[in-house]
């Protein structure tokens, strides 16, 4: 069976996902697309050689009789509307982050999905599908280093064009917030945000860069995330888990060690697209396969809600200078299996 997909939003990441589904992955076909910019959507259909109908609204894509499942890759503030409409239509929906731009919007989606009685929503937290993070999780689950006590994490981008205000916390760190609680199978209870000396190499005056985010989990694990989105030198994601009997580090992307002119060197990637390209492929192949089986196995609407609560608490902590509680309701049974 071929899963027939409708895509809403044919901007940068929408185009990439359509390309991977059409030319790299198996079991699915993009049959419908929409973007507010209809000409751009038509251009994508032509450029990627798709047999897909271009609709003038996202709602029409969701309602189309030949669309089995929906991918939402439009502008963040539109996600909530399209995810709710997909749930109402009884169609599985993959939504790029954010699930909604407010925690309240995410909670509405959680409630609508529970009312529908069936898991339909997956959120685009692709790090859970990354080989390196999966290896690290296997080491922790095998109890190789005892119970985790401390996580030392780094999230560095060479530059962040268009970033302003609190976007480092609400746009890029959301991936850290999701993957770390998945890694630990734990939840956060508080957040603190330290604002060190600000880099001069930052375009936007309203952007604090770097930040140090301190999270505490229910089991007492202390997490430190350095977020530095104008670090200049590369895209660098690090995670070290300190356990009772040892430490475990996120494997570095493979790179050829070069010995030359009295130096040993390795390349560092510069783009998140290159770092996580394989993870995106695995994420979508698993979503296609699970959706075809009538299942939903990836990050859920609940995970999207928890991340929104966490980033809200970080923004609050940044501005208050205090340790702020993260008061999550108990996870409903609907999402615990
Ligand atoms: P983008 O290039 O701006 O693409 C978004 C597209 O959605 C644009 O073509 C935009 O049109 C269109 N759009 C806006 N409102 C719409 C509506 N009501 N109906 C249909 N289309 C609409 O942005 P992007 O970089 O692809 O990002 C899209 C989403 O993916 C964002 O939420 C972003 O956070 C997420 N994302 C996730 C990752 C990840 O690591 N998982 C990476 C990149 C992006 P106009 O340009 O004409 O407004």
TrEMBL record:
It catalyses: myo-inositol + NAD(+) = scyllo-inosose + NADH + H(+). Residues 3-125 form the Gfo/Idh/MocA-like oxidoreductase N-terminal domain. InterPro entries: Gfo-Idh-MocA_inositol_DH, Gfo/Idh/MocA-like_OxRdtase_C, Gfo/Idh/MocA-like_OxRdtase_N, MI/DCI_dehydrogenase, NAD(P)-bd_dom_sf. Its EC number is 1.1.1.18. Keywords: NAD, Oxidoreductase. Residues 165-327 form the Gfo/Idh/MocA-like oxidoreductase C-terminal domain. It is an enzyme of class 1 (oxidoreductase). GO terms for biological process: inositol catabolic process. It holds the Pfam family GFO_IDH_MocA_C. One of its GO terms (molecular function) is inositol 2-dehydrogenase (NAD+) activity. Homotetramer. Involved in the oxidation of myo-inositol (MI) to 2-keto-myo-inositol (2KMI or 2-inosose). Belongs to the Gfo/Idh/MocA family. This is Inositol 2-dehydrogenase. The gene is iolG.
């Amino acid at each position: 069976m071929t899963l027939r997909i409708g895509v809403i939003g044919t901007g940068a990441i929408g185009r990439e996902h359509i390309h991977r589904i059409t030319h790299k992955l198996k079991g699915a076909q993009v049959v419908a697309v929409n973007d507010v910019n209809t000409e751009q959507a038509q251009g994508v259909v032509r450029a990627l050689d798709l047999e897909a109908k271009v609709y003038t609204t996202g709602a029409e894509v969701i309602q189309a009789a030949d669309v089995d499942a929906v991918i939402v890759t439009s502008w963040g503030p539109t996600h909530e509307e399209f995810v709710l409409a997909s749930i109402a239509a009884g169609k599985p929906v993959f939504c790029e982050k954010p699930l909604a731009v407010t925690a309240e919007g995410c909670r509405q989606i959680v409630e609508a999905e529970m009312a529908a009685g069936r898991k339909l929503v997956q959120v685009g937290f692709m790090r859970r599908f990354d080989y390196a993070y999966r290896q690290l999780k296997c080491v922790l689950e095998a109890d190789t280093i005892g119970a985790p006590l401390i996580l030392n994490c780094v999230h560095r981008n060479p530059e962040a064009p268009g970033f302003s205000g609190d976007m480092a916390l609400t746009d890029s760190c959301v991936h850290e917030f999701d993957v770390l609680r998945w890694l630990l199978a734990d939840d956060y209870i508080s957040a603190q945000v330290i604002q060190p000396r600000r880099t001069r190499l930052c375009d936007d005056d309203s952007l604090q860069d770097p930040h140090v985010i301190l999270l505490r989990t229910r089991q007492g694990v202390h997490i430190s995330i350095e977020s530095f989105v104008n670090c200049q030198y590369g895209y660098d994601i690090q995670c070290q888990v300190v356990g009772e009997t040892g430490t475990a580090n996120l494997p570095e992307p493979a790179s050829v060690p070069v010995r030359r002119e009295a130096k040993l060197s390795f390349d560092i990637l510069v783009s998140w697209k290159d770092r996580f390209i394989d993870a995106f492929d695995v994420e979508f192949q698993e979503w296609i396969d699970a959706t075809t089986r009538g299942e939903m196995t990836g990050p859920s609407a609940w995970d999207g809600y928890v991340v929104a609560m966490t980033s809200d608490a970080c923004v609050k902590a940044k501005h208050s200078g205090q340790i702020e509680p993260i008061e999550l309701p108990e996870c409903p049974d609907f999402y615990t299996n």
